[in-house]
Amino acid sequence: MTDQSYDAAIIGGGHNGLVAAGYLAKAGLSVVVLEKQDVLGGAAISARSFEGIDARLSRYSYLVSLLPAQVIEDLGLEVELAPRRFGSFTPDPLTGSGLLIDKNDARATEQSFASINAAADFDRWNEFYAKTEQIAQKLFGTVLEPLRTESEVAALLGPELWRDFFVRPIGEVIEKTFESDLVRGVVMTDALIGTFASNHDAELDANKCFLYHVIGNETGEWSIPVGGMGAVTESMAKRALEFGAELRANCEVLSIDDNRVVAFSENGQTKTISAQYILANVSRPVLNNLLGKPKQHSIEGAQVKVNMLLKRLPKLKSGTDPVAAFGGTFHINENFEQLQTAYDQAVRGEIPNPLPCEIYCHSLTDPSILGAELKASGAQTLTVFALHTPHSLLADRDHDAMRDALEKAVIASINSVLDEDIRDLLLTDANGELCIETKTTQDLEDALGLPGGNIFHAPLSWPFVKDGAQLETPAQRWGVDSGLPGIMFCGSTAQRGGAVSGIAGHNAAMAVLETETQRKK
């Protein structure tokens, strides 16, 4: 006998699980979400990371682009996404200037291209991103529909877009399009966030990563979630509860048997529930472990995340206004050649030097995440995302020592473009400790169950299937099939998963509802 029975049990209370719960409960199904942590939201949470400091940092995930407006509307989410005035800033040590992409001033952006001796790349930049916008407008609407085939998507996009973004390595296209090494690097970074790949990646993993970075809501715009990332998942949880879903934190799932009976630990007691459908908002290795299957895998992430709290924004060697430089994505040591060199160094088991980094200052766009005293003092948050630090770097090495070494590499990379040492600007917490926290791939695996610290749960997949792929069942058509009856993926492991999007949660719910309709006929 099980304690309770549900139509759907969702394993993992991250954002996709909450979206799936919302849709299913809204449709009248009985739904329970079991979350291991004491707070719902998974990687999309806000936290006061530093003792005694009133700042709600987006601790893991940090920007939003792929969350469809349709999901927000369908569930009535109270989510505010604030656009950033500046697209990006990239210092150029050769000219002492830097490339500042001002989304509100095309003339200023054109002058910025000229200042780094890349005037000819300005028009190419506009033409290139006009193409990505065409892809976004044609393709993004399909991610909340049953999967299309490769031939269907190729026909939808046309031969030129298909060739340049889906067949040829994206780095090759970037290299042939732009002259400036700096401009090439800025474009290439979107192909490498969370993806360990060469600039000329023949496997096209970089292409897949690039695609998801430029198609969000048909514009590719990346926005700041007002109130922090936790505000997004708090709204998702609130609506799921209002629709009738049951959300249970501090519930560690222990096993799932062949009859879809879920055993879990709650308040020191082992309990069981059964469900018609189980939605796995976890990675495949974690699901395999729960099913009693081997957990071994070769998945790995490739990034280091550093959160900081500063007394004020730092001064730059370029003399650029820090509010503009930090108002978008601040690229550091991410020129095209630097990215390839960093990749090559990491393949050899070395921490890249210099380490490619990008910085996001959430508090400039959304000061509400700071308490009144901090806000008045001029304090700012910084989120640093370092590329090409694969999980393999940690193998057979002392983890604490590697975390410290990676943090020092991040600081050295940042300081290379500053006119002062960023460590001198760090606030201290109530214990006198510096307000800086570094999360390695191992930390992400330990805290969130991400295999090898991979922020996408697994290498990204195309948002379509090969011609002739099996699309017989709802789970297959919606890209959420686990290969087991009644068990579906509803998180980043699903096809079209990855990033804070809710797409996989929506699609898993649609597969369940379609299956239910067929079952009742």
UniProtKB/TrEMBL annotation:
Signal peptide: none annotated. It is found in: Mitochondrion matrix. One of its GO terms (cellular component) is mitochondrial matrix. Transmembrane segments: none annotated. Residues 194-301 form the Amine oxidase domain. InterPro entries: Amino_oxidase (IPR002937), FAD/NAD-bd_sf (IPR036188). GO terms for molecular function: oxidoreductase activity. Probable oxidoreductase that may play a role as regulator of mitochondrial function. Interacts with COX5B; this interaction may contribute to localize PYROXD2 to the inner face of the inner mitochondrial membrane. PANTHER family: PHYTOENE DEHYDROGENASE, PYRIDINE NUCLEOTIDE-DISULFIDE OXIDOREDUCTASE DOMAIN-CONTAINING PROTEIN 2. This is Pyridine nucleotide-disulfide oxidoreductase domain-containing protein 2.
